[in-house]
Amino acid sequence: MSDHDNPFNEPLPKSPPDRRLILFAGVMLMASLGSVYAWSFFTKPLQAAYHWANWQTSLVFSLAVAGLGFSALYTGPLVAKLGGRKLMKRSAVFFVSGYLIAALGLYLGSGVIGDIQTPWVSWLSFVVLALGYGVIGGIGLGTGYLTAVSTIAGWHPDKKGFATGMIVMGFGIGALFMSKVFGPKAMEFAGGNVAAAFLIIAGVYGVIMTLACRSIYSPHAAISSKHVATVADTYEHLPNVRVRLWLTCFTYSLAGLGIISQLSRLMQDVSKSADSSLSVEALAAAGATLIAIASLGNSVGRLIWAWLSDHFGRVNIFAALLGTAGLAYLVLPHASSPILFSILICYVIASYGGGFGTIPSLISDLYGSKRMSSLHGLALTGWATAGLIAPPFFGFLYDKVPDQAATYAYYICAGSLFASMILVFSVKKLHKHCTAPAE
Fold first, then answer.
1. Within a domain: residue 145?
2. Do 171 and 256 reside in the same domain of the chain?
3. Is 426 helix (H, G, I), strand (E, B) or coil?
4. Any idea what the Cα angle at residue 148 is, between residues 302 and 359, rounded to 5°?
5. Which of 118, 128, 182, 354 could be cross-linked to 301 through a Cys-Cys bond (beta carbons 3.0 to 4.6 Å apart)?
6. What local confidence, expressed as pLDDT, does residue 5 receive?
7. Which of 198, 226, 254 is where one domain is finished?
8. How far apart are the C-alpha atoms of 154 and 166, rounded to whole Å?
9. Is the model more confident about 339 or about 13?
């Protein structure tokens, strides 16, 4: 790599970078960031120790989701200006700082400045926690997520679907690793103290992300050698194309996040209907097992669907995963068997993950690799908006119509996915035009 190929003043490797190593480093970075999806693992210990309400612990996660989406919008234009390595370092600083500030907030509520039962102590502790984990950590999430996807896609212009599928799969695997392995171990080492566990997590992820950043290089050299110029590189799109992409991300995210937020409760209801003799502990275990399996499905779906889009067409596969998942939602109200219910749920969650694996490549096909990061950041604000709307709305359904809430939720999700499928089909002709070789 020459200085001419290095516009971001990144350290030059002695030999040309191995893009497989860059992909691995990106997966490790995304796995670290993906731990945010395991927030629910900490909610019960937090509520037991600090006596916070459900809406308060849910708000922390919603802030992190919003921080990811809206900071990604800000980060998009910076990728082409600052480069992947600098932005990934910035992501690591914000993300690890989020855990550290959250730990500080929890220590403030552990008796250092007063009893947690005192209102001002409780609120100060909670506000610092929300500021750290939700706002500061969320900025790190959005910065890192968008940068990692854009960087890896740039290094693999010949295998965009597979590469972006791998990188976003890392995000899903990170949640599973945190909830089933790292989180329990950190809590065990911390003696059940969430604040101490957050310090352990911050330390470990700080090391992992620092080492991974050393293997990240911006894809300018790869683009010059492997990128094939297409119409998309210079095509001037109408503004409504951006609107359709945003709505696509919003509608499929609405369905996915809405169901994920109620997954344990839904599984417990089906299991109880099938066997009324099950204990509370057995029902809770069934819900936890489905969450773990669905998380794995979410991760694998991100890779499989994106990889298929490389071989069978971006629009065709994207529309297929949305449409078939919509049909699965129509069947779910009639799935009385826990096994059938689990299979259908895992499929729709895998398809939800597939949307995240496929949409970066679709955007790149339409707008070209240089504009991908900005448009991907815009699309992710659709996910953030769905994250703010879907969980509380589906919870509202359970408050108002508990007996019919699940059925209503399934039909709403089906309608959202069918709308998303129509939106994807609406760019099919445009996609074909933009992926044609440039004259």
1. yes
2. no
3. coil
4. 40
5. 354
6. 52
7. 226
8. 14
9. 339
13 within domain boundaries: no
pTM for the complete prediction?
Answer: 0.82
Q: Given phi > 0 = left and psi -120 to 50 = alpha, else beta, which region is 191?
A: left
pLDDT in tens, 339-359: 999 999 999 999 999 998 899
DSSP-assigned letter for residue 334? G
Write out the DSSP string of 188-206. HHTTT-HHHHHHHHHHHHH
* Distance from C-alpha of 70 to C-alpha of 255, rounded to nearest angstrom: 20
What single letter denotes the amino acid at residue 382? Answer: G
What's the token pair of residue 128? 């610092």
| CA dist., res. 146 & res. 174, Å (int) | 16
Distance CA 230, CA 363 (A): 13
Report which DSSP code applies to 230. B
Alpha carbon distances (Å) from 260 to 254, 307, 320, 384, 428: 10, 24, 21, 15, 30
Distance CA(294)–CA(264), nearest Å, equals 11
The string of pLDDT tens digits covering residues 354-397 is 998 899 899 989 998 788 888 988 998 998 898 888 878 887 88
Tokens for 159, please give them: 């295998």
Arithmetic mean of pLDDT over the chain? 87
Residues above pLDDT 70, as percent of the chain: 95
Are the C-beta atoms of residues 322 and 363 closer than 8 Å to each other? no
The pLDDT-based confidence of 227 (bands split at 50, 70, 90) is low
Do 277 and 146 belong to one domain? no
**Helices (H) then strands (E): counts for the chain:** 18, 0
Whichever domain contains 366, its CATH number is 1.20.1250.20
Residue 207 falls inside a structural domain: yes
Question: Cβ atoms within 10 A of the Cβ of 127, count?
Answer: 12
Q: Are residues 249 and 153 in the same domain?
A: no
Q: Decide if 417 contacts 250 (C-beta within 8 A).
A: no
pLDDT digits 0-9 by tens, 244-288: 999 999 999 999 888 887 887 788 889 888 888 888 888 878 887
* End-of-domain residue from the set 206, 226, 246: 226
- Domain containing residue 426: 231-434
pLDDT at 7 over 60: no
DSSP track, 56-112 = HHHHHHHHHHHHHHHHHHHHHHHHHHH-HHHHHHHHHHHHHHHHHHHHHHHHIIIII
